[in-house]
Structures are given as C-alpha cells and as structure tokens.
Amino acid sequence: MKKLFTILSFLLLMILTVSAQTEKIKFIEYDLPNGLHVILHQDHNTPNVVVSLMYHVGAKNEDPERTGFAHLFEHLMFEGSQNIARGDYFKIVQAAGGELNANTTQDRTYYFEMMPANQLELALWMEAERMLHANIDSIGVATQKGVVIEERNQSYDSRPYGTFMEELGKRAFTTHPYRWQTIGDPEHIRNSTFDDVFNFYKTYYVPNNTVLVVVGDIDEAQTKVWIEKYFGDIPRGDRPMNRPTVVEPPLAEEVRDVVYDKVQLPGVFMGYRAPAMNKEAYAVEILCKILYGGNSSRFKTNIDDKGLAMQTLVFPYILEHPGLTYVVGIPNVGVTVESLEEAMTAEFERVQNELVSEDEFKMAMASKEFEVAGGLTRISNIAQSLANNYTYFRDAERINQELSFYQDITREDLQEVAQKYFHRNNRVVLYYLPESEKD
Question: How far apart are CA 14 and CA 424, in angstroms?
C-alpha cells in the first residue's frame, strides 16, 4: 500500500509539472551570411536573459597526438580579447549582475552568460569579442596549459578512481576518438606549440561552426540588430574541420583488466557500449533509472540495501556517436569485487530475460517526464536544449518533441536494448585495486 501511495504521489507531481509546461517553446531562427545560426526565444516571465554559444567541437575532433585542446580552449576563451583585458572577462559580467560558465564534452563546447535583461547588448558584444579575436597569446596559452595540467592532476590522477572513465574508454574503443577523455594527455598539452593552439582556434571557433541562442526577456527586433552589429562582420571559417566518421567495430568479447591505484578500497567499474542519440538511447536512459534511480531502484534494493556495496552508480553517457554506459560499485567490508560484480551483472541479466514490472516502468517514466518538463521551465535549460538540438540534429524544434520521445518507449523496448547492449560481450570490466596488492 505504501509503495502504491508513493507511485500515485509521484505521478501526481509529474502531471502537475508537465501541465505547467504545456505550451510549446516558440522561437525564431535564422542564419547570418557568415554561417552563424541564431535562435531567439522570448520569455517575459523573467527579467533575465541567457546568451549562449555552442561550438561544434569537442575532444573527438582533436588530433590523436594533440588531445585536450577542446578543453584547453574552454579555459583560453576567458583570457580576454583585444578589447577586454586579461582577467577582466569574469569581472565585467559579475559587475553587470550576471554569471557565466562553460563546459566541454567529446562533441561540443558550450559557453553561456546569464545576465539582467538590460545587459543583453553587453553579453552579445563580449561573446562576439572572443569569437572574433580572443586573446590567444603566448602568456595566456602558457598560463592555461598549466591550469589544465593541474586540473588533470587534481581531478583525475590524484583522486581515488579518478581515471576510471579514461581507463574504460581506451579499452572500449580502439579506433574512435572517444577512446580519450576531454581532459587530454598532459604531455600533448605540454608539448603543443603556439601555432598548434592558434590553428585550433581559427579552425573551429568560427561562426559557421556555431549556434547562438538568446533566451529570456528580449525584444526580438532589437536583439537581431545587435546580433548583426556584433557578429555580422566576423569572417566565415574556411579551414577544413576534422569530422570523424570512423565506426568503432563491435567488441568481440568481454574485456577485463586490473588497475592498481592509490585507493584504500577496491572497486568494480564497467563500461557497456551504448547507442548514440536515438530512440535506443531514450530507452537506455529509462532502463538505467530502473536499475539506479532512487530508493526503490534495483541496485538500491538488491545490492546496496543488502550490504553488498558501500556505493553503486549506473549512468548512461549519451553522445553524438555510440558511447558508453558506466556502472560503478565499491564493495562493502568483507565483500569481494568478484561477488559484487556478480550481483551487479545479475541485475543486467534480469532485465534481459524478463520485462520490467509495470510499477517500475511507470515510476521511471514519471521521473524522466518530470525531469524533462521541469527543465523546460528554466531559461538556462531552454537555451541549452535549443543549442543541443540544432547542433546534433539541425532541428531545434525537437525541444517540443522531447517528452514524446520518452513517452513512445515501451517495456519491450527496454528489454530489447538490454539484450542488445547490456550483455557480457559488450562491456569492459575493470577492478581498481590498492597499489599495495600489486605483485
């Protein structure tokens, strides 16, 4: 009875949230002659605006001998420009009452500013400044190289289990550039020349490789004028861009290995090969919520609550090309990595062999619908969704179809993706063990 009440309560919350976001996201889009794609969404319910640019360049576009450049540029783009002094980019935005940030994946680099609506022109000017002539000089390059290498040291090499995505990737992929992570190889960064870095900027940081999204309390006509004023004269890029088309061959069999690391406790890390952004990916997301999505999920009830693991985690990392779904388990005291792996694998085999229950399915679907609908009530999420859908699909209208993509999924779809992707011969399994156990 308690479980039924929980399901009904969650469904009611989801219905209320989805109902609050029933109106379509209306927007206009157009191209400047230089190839910059522009998307504008007007929302007078907020006194703010989001100005964002998504550059279609990530780690997979890098030279295998010069990895980490996309992430390096995430840092370099805050160095200032010919008209913005070094170190002043953050100061100007914050002085105007705004905030800003950026992030990089294997597929794209995303920059955004949240500003009071009356500071829209300032934000557009600043983004155009660094697209046209960012301060890419020897001082900035040397500084940010050091920052990125230190970030790798702190977040990857010196953090317990910090390299697990990197270690799984280089075993799961042999030809595709997803075999390396966005942080890159510190030696590649250290040994790169100024020309290497500058050429990357001139190749990818160009209007015809970018979508500009402006969302919030805007006047569309005035915004168009400012966009033309600041972005219209930026030259179109004409250098060839690396667009990998390689298709990674299937794993012939399960890959297993041991990583000895500076850890106190052993760990089990799995990487199942996963679909690219398509219907199968939506099904994988729902299935992963059933496996690991709250107090009633299978990993929680069948592994964590039974004392087999101190911590577990299942998360799909959906990318432009087929990527990985990650599975993590840190065994409890007295539990071996072998027995924990067996328990984790058993949960994947269960969803291959039988349909998930109606209750589990409804809870997972409700959770995902709540997440999608709730996200579209925030202008920052709307901006990123519009940018994503244009960058990956050349179809920003998908923002209004995303709920239906999940609602079309069936329990049978979940079983099909489980059988196709979550079997032993489609995965890498790593045991992380303390260095003291190494022979």
Answer: 35
Q: Strand, coil or helix: what is 39?
A: strand
Residue 300 CB coordination number (10 Å): 17
The residue ranges of the chain whose pLDDT is under 70 are 1-22
In DSSP notation, 14-55 reads HHHHHHHT-S----EEEE-TTS-EEEEEE-TTSSEEEEEEEE
Diameter over CA atoms, the chain: 70
Degrees to nearest 5, angle at CA 54 with 49 and 55: 150
* Beta carbons within 10 angstroms of residue 174's beta carbon: 10
d(CA 343, CA 159): 26
Question: Is there a contact between 164 and 127 (Cβ–Cβ < 8 Å)?
Answer: no
State how far the Cα of 290 lies from the Cα of 308, in Å rounded to an integer. Answer: 19
**DSSP secondary structure letter of residue 235:** P
Residue entry with tokens 């979550």: 422
In angstroms, the CA 435 to CA 438 distance is: 5
88-135 pLDDT, tens digit each: 999 999 999 999 999 999 999 999 999 999 999 999 999 999 999 898
Helix segments in 21-115, DSSP class H = 69-76, 88-95
Contact by Cβ (8 Å): 38, 32: yes
